[in-house]
Amino acid sequence: MPGMGIVRAALFVCALTGCAGTQTFSGRSYLADNPQAFAGRVVGDGHCVRFVQTAAAAPRTTAWRAGAWVRGNDAIPPGTVIATFESDGTYTPETGNHAAVYLSQDRTGIRVYDQWSGQPVHQRVIRFEGGRGAGSGSKSNDGKLFRVVVVDSGAEMAGGM
Fold first, then answer.
1. What does pLDDT average to over the chain?
2. Which of 29, 32, 78, 134 is in Cβ range 3.0-4.6 Å of 20 for a Cys bridge?
3. CA distance 88 to 97
4. pLDDT digit string (tens) for 72-113?
5. How many CB atoms neighbour CB 136 within 10 A?
6. Beta carbons within 8 Å of 28's beta carbon, 6+ residues apart
7. Distance (Å, rounded) from C-alpha 19 to C-alpha 92?
């Protein structure tokens, strides 16, 4: 069948990029349908993870893995859960990682909805270069470090945050 090569190529690209919102070889991503409904509110304990878990029905962070890089990836739909990760692709809140709901991006940064302790859900831009905190090693404020959150199809949903 002549079209099968194209289909296989598309599936391969999807697997490599983490095709947000779909079931792929690299995992499943999570989408928040209405993140703006949380604006101005503190969700759960006020930490970033509680907001994205509530807005997108995302699982516990022990199941999270690093998917496609956000910067320059025009295939990521608005509402996708994104985060910063450890070098081994896992999410660990103890090291300053951060999670948010992706809205869009331009050459300067990523527009997201997020919250943190002391800051209710709000919309902001996390800059790629020169953002407040980026130069000090803050993962939370460096747009270059964000990736799509994916979960393996058979991942255990128990344990962790």
1. 83
2. 29
3. 13
4. 999 999 999 999 999 999 999 877 899 999 999 999 999 999
5. 8
6. 22, 150, 151, 152, 153
7. 23
